[in-house]
Amino acid sequence: MVYIEVVILNNFFVNLFIIYLTYAVTNKKFKKLRSVIAAIIGAIFAVIYPLVGKYKYVIAILLSPIMVLIFFPFRRFKDYVLGLFIFVAITFALGGSTIGLSYLFDVELTSSIIYGLTVLGGLIVTVFLKQIIKSKMIRKRICKVTVYLYGEKFAINGLLDTGNSLCDSVTSKPVIVLSKKIGDKFADKSEREINVKTVGGTAALKLLSPEKIELQFEKGMRSETNFMIAISKENYHGYDVVLHNSFCQEVL
Asked: Which CATH number fits domain 141-247: 2.40.30.10, 1.20.1070.10, 1.10.287.3510, 2.40.70.10?
C-alpha cells in the first residue's frame, strides 16, 4: 500500500532538489520560501496528475513554467526563459542519469536507493550544465582585438571583463592583462612592474607601454591609446587578453 502523504513528500523533496540545482547552475541565491511553495505545488499536481484524465497534458505543459515563475527571480523575460530551460533540462537529465547510473552500477531502481542515485545524478548534471553556461557566457564577452606594441601588430581575442579595474599607480592609466604565452615575447622590453592582488596573494606583473589597441564590437570599432599592458603569469584559454572595465561600457 502506498500512502498519499509519502508520495507527496517524495515529490516535494525531489522538486526542491531540482529547484536547488537550478539556482546552483544559474549562480543565483537560493530563495527558501519561494522554492518551498513551488515544490509544494509541484508535489500536489504530481499526485492529482493521474486523476485528471485528458487534462493531464495541460498540466504537464503548464506546471514547469508556473513553478519557475514562482521560485526563479528574474528581471528580464530572457532570464525567465533561461531559468525554465535549466529547470526542464535538469528534470529530464536527472531522470535519464538516474536510470543510466542504475545500469552502470547494475543496481535495481528501488525506493531504498533511488534518492542516492538522484543526488549523484543531480551533481553530475549540475557540473555539466554549469560548464556549458560558463562557456557560453565567456563566448558572448569575447571581441576581436588588434594590438600595436613596440612596432608590431597582432590580432587576438579579448575578454570584456567588468571586474578588471586595475590601474597603474604611476600614470593612472587603465591596465589590460595579456596572456603569458604572448606577453613573454615582449617581457625584455618591460621597464617596471605592477603589483596585483590574486587569489594566492600579491603578484608582480611586468608592464608594457603599447602604442594602440583596436577593439571590434558588433556596433563598430573602438580605438584606445591611453592604457598599459601587464603580462600575466598564466596562459588564458579561449581568449588572450583581459580588457579593462572602462573598455566594456559600450557593449555590457
From this structure: 2.40.70.10
